[in-house]
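Incident log, support desk, overnight shift.

02:14 A customer reports that sequence design results differ from what the structure should imply. Their input is reproduced verbatim below. On-call engineer (initials T.W.) acknowledged and began investigating.
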């Protein structure tokens, strides 16, 4: 009988790949895991999703009509990040996701302060992707990516 550990993993972009490749029940791998359960492989269906999530927030200086990098990830899971333009920010923001070659994978419309947008899906094993943002008003923005 084979058991698979399904975990909701909350990672920073720099540790996502290292932790995702960790094998077994090592203390290092378990340090970043939450809400884990053991599931028998026969209990899984093709609709079950195993994924890692980036949980990041921080300040980014954005300018008008120029895209700035917010955060990147080397995805090994399918991802559809929710990106929030936090309340109190100076203005609306347009978000986009680009792949390692600069191709636009997804793009939002204008996202007002205090609102979120979900972009994707980004296919598993599609390489490095970067979330970028451009603001209507130049300034420092607090952005969250879940």
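02:41 Re-run completed on a clean worker. Output:
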């Amino acid at each position: 009988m084979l058991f698979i550990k399904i975990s909701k993993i909350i990672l920073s972009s720099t540790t996502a790949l290292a932790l995702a490749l960790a094998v077994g029940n090592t203390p290092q791998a378990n340090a970043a895991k939450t809400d884990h359960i053991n599931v028998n492989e026969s209990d899984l269906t093709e609709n079950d999703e195993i994924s890692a999530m980036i949980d990041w927030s921080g300040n980014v200086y954005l300018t008008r009509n120029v895209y700035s990098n917010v955060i990147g990830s080397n995805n090994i899971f399918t991802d559809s990040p929710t990106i929030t333009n936090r309340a109190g920010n100076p203005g609306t923001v347009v978000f986009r996701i680009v792949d390692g070659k600069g191709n636009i994978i997804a793009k939002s419309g204008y996202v007002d302060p205090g609102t979120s947008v979900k972009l994707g899906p980004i296919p598993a094993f599609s390489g490095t992707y970067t979330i970028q943002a451009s603001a209507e008003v130049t300034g420092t923005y607090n952005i969250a990516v879940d």
